[in-house]
């Protein structure tokens, strides 16, 4: 990611460009590639009702620099081109169009629409998003409650998920390749005779490789279970010299601390297994994601490991030794990526995929993620049954109560501006029998009825913030969007994400 | 380039008493009608409905724009805002009340002017200074304090100030403190009832400081681009003094550091030093986006609204802390952080502290900066008598000789010490020292000191 920013940096003495200065705080999150995706996007907001939540979401997208947006409010359509490259700040054009006309001409990157919405308008939106495979987000905010739901047009795979940095360490200590083993052996020869300085600067990766080799000589196998790992850790700790001024060695302390985390066989995360198990349809399978994913699957079948990401965490070491170690990991990562690239090239759709895309994919292979996008196969009744069953044991598990009743109650007013509590409960009762005897549903319905369809500014501002985050994640294809409904309770200040 | 304002539709509300009713209908729905979760005190009377209009709110910090707009549109009519900063071009990606033409002007004044103009009947008083410049009398006038401060020191200062303000005889002296902060896609909002619930100092260890890179790594064995930048920042700058004083906001200074760091990185074959990274390390830049600011500011203002209107239960006495994470899905964790009896601000018990009696007082003071629950950069210390005072200069000079003395020489095992830091307000740590090792004494140093 830093490399991308580097490419964008103009000659050193001039410092960052005006755009880089203005967007500095966000380029650190999604880099120039994400910014480009935002600037190329055209977002449609279909507003109805008081519409604060939609406008708040849009505000949080205009600020980071989306290229173009259109607001359609019943009959009035306003198109605003923020023209980042043009001299004038932005152009705005207001005209009367019907919702149907709006969709005849424009191509949108993403659509946000707020509820309640007229059923016929909703049908037009749904038809458009289906035909053009455009993601949409529906948003409903009333009183202290809100929810939003993401409607993705098909499977939505993400490579650049930005995993937590501490989770990404992959050192392959249990299956070192020859270059790494040789390097470790070279640094640990005559370990006992090494000077205090040398001994205290052996990188912990090398220390662990050394003691693993000794362990294997003694036991025939590598430490695998908890008990063996604990014993192994004691062996490493015993190797620390304590007769120096500090009474210990930092690098050995690092080695001891890294045992549990790094001495384990690589296993595929459930999200990677999901990608490997997914059967892309015809159009999907020719996209670069699925071509590369398939090549990585082939790599994994052959080597029983994913391509090496190639990064090395910081550790106590001499500068030169650390850089050598980094280079050994980088070389292996390049070698693995080259093998994947070869498979990609042999695929009919893989001729034009940039090598950099394959490299990035290999680097993030352990953290790729697939969001299915299609609506849940289970009915709302099944979802409700599962949620309310959880609620029954909530007192024991100390888990908060399900927020599904909020979704159900707002959902009952999807096409009307307001309703009485009993109307809402009756409507829910059509899908969920005995809704009227569920106190959570009755309370939520009363709270929704109390708001009388009115938005509270804070709840809509908060919801608009969450919606904008999701839009950014979808447009930049970075980080992980929700799957697929997020419910917010402004009374307890909690969210819950559910698949509905 | 100017920023189009997206809230115009909702902000341009006509003033005048005739319009007043229609204008706040959406608030009145919840202010007049009881809900299933309201407390028994909820009445919905005219008196109660207009109560929030008389609530005086204080806001500060980087979330200021959002907080002001949210409060004004939630019916608050007497708002004070404090911010000593001027508008920087890098604020424009999230602080929507500011335009490119406002760069260089006072944040507080600019934001106040904007919102006051758009929301008729709402008075916003800007204060272009630090929160620490105001005294107890100033803070006494408010009913609710909302802070979106970006420094932990400022948070600790306002927290201890508000705890100290509480007078058991005077109900009005208890000012709810609502605090919000963001970092990238993450953030938190918390509500504190000073002296009654867990305070910011009780929760300090949740925001542990990043461990500093050892100086020897910077000086002799750099491995990361950050090490090269820190070297340029701490060592090369001091040695060469290319400009009279380092100004983090001067691109020429950053460029100097960048080139120094780049040269050092080249020498050690380290890749990854960029201008952007240099700026990030030197200024300790935290990524910030409009959407996260909107979420956290709105969460804070939602709590203020509930406190002022009693339209629903607020965070505070049970759950008091909401953590928000938006980078992988959306996740909130809302929980109760317990008040600590040994809190240096709202508690009165001493806490145990393991200490090596062979450390010098100076080394011990340095270690307090790194302890997650202390994070004290300029502490003064007293035991039975004063061990070290940072100020006034005469006392500092008098107590300075103690810095090189060993802990074991100055205090006994099990003794209690008090640690204060006036820059953080009325923070007062009480530690009961437990010696972790035997005190070896130090005949040579004692002799030379006498
Ligand atoms: Zn406290």
Automatic annotation (TrEMBL), chain A:
<protein>
    <recommendedName>
        <fullName>NEDD8-activating enzyme E1 regulatory subunit</fullName>
    </recommendedName>
</protein>
<dbReference type="InterPro" id="IPR035985">
    <property type="entry name" value="Ubiquitin-activating_enz"/>
</dbReference>
<dbReference type="GO" id="GO:0019781">
    <property type="term" value="F:NEDD8 activating enzyme activity"/>
</dbReference>
<comment type="similarity">
    <text>Belongs to the ubiquitin-activating E1 family. ULA1 subfamily.</text>
</comment>
<dbReference type="InterPro" id="IPR000594">
    <property type="entry name" value="ThiF_NAD_FAD-bd"/>
</dbReference>
<comment type="pathway">
    <text>Protein modification; protein neddylation.</text>
</comment>
<dbReference type="GO" id="GO:0045116">
    <property type="term" value="P:protein neddylation"/>
</dbReference>
<feature type="domain" description="THIF-type NAD/FAD binding fold">
    <location>
        <begin position="23"/>
        <end position="82"/>
    </location>
</feature>
<dbReference type="InterPro" id="IPR045886">
    <property type="entry name" value="ThiF/MoeB/HesA"/>
</dbReference>
<comment type="function">
    <text>Regulatory subunit of the dimeric UBA3-ULA1 E1 enzyme.</text>
</comment>
<keyword id="KW-0833">Ubl conjugation pathway</keyword>
<dbReference type="Pfam" id="PF00899">
    <property type="entry name" value="ThiF"/>
</dbReference>
<dbReference type="GO" id="GO:0005737">
    <property type="term" value="C:cytoplasm"/>
</dbReference>
<dbReference type="InterPro" id="IPR030667">
    <property type="entry name" value="APP-BP1"/>
</dbReference>
UniProtKB/TrEMBL annotation, chain B:
<dbReference type="GO" id="GO:0005524">
    <property type="term" value="F:ATP binding"/>
</dbReference>
<keyword id="KW-0067">ATP-binding</keyword>
<dbReference type="InterPro" id="IPR000594">
    <property type="entry name" value="ThiF_NAD_FAD-bd"/>
</dbReference>
<dbReference type="GO" id="GO:0032991">
    <property type="term" value="C:protein-containing complex"/>
</dbReference>
<dbReference type="InterPro" id="IPR045886">
    <property type="entry name" value="ThiF/MoeB/HesA"/>
</dbReference>
<dbReference type="GO" id="GO:0005634">
    <property type="term" value="C:nucleus"/>
</dbReference>
<dbReference type="GO" id="GO:0045116">
    <property type="term" value="P:protein neddylation"/>
</dbReference>
<keyword id="KW-0547">Nucleotide-binding</keyword>
<dbReference type="InterPro" id="IPR014929">
    <property type="entry name" value="E2-binding"/>
</dbReference>
<comment type="pathway">
    <text>Protein modification; protein neddylation.</text>
</comment>
<dbReference type="InterPro" id="IPR023318">
    <property type="entry name" value="Ub_act_enz_dom_a_sf"/>
</dbReference>
<comment type="function">
    <text>Catalytic subunit of the dimeric E1 enzyme, which activates NEDD8.</text>
</comment>
<dbReference type="GO" id="GO:0005737">
    <property type="term" value="C:cytoplasm"/>
</dbReference>
<dbReference type="InterPro" id="IPR035985">
    <property type="entry name" value="Ubiquitin-activating_enz"/>
</dbReference>
<protein>
    <recommendedName>
        <fullName>NEDD8-activating enzyme E1 catalytic subunit</fullName>
        <ecNumber>6.2.1.64</ecNumber>
    </recommendedName>
</protein>
<feature type="domain" description="E2 binding">
    <location>
        <begin position="353"/>
        <end position="436"/>
    </location>
</feature>
<dbReference type="Pfam" id="PF08825">
    <property type="entry name" value="E2_bind"/>
</dbReference>
<keyword id="KW-0833">Ubl conjugation pathway</keyword>
<comment type="similarity">
    <text>Belongs to the ubiquitin-activating E1 family. UBA3 subfamily.</text>
</comment>
<dbReference type="GO" id="GO:0019781">
    <property type="term" value="F:NEDD8 activating enzyme activity"/>
</dbReference>
<dbReference type="InterPro" id="IPR030468">
    <property type="entry name" value="Uba3_N"/>
</dbReference>
<keyword id="KW-0436">Ligase</keyword>
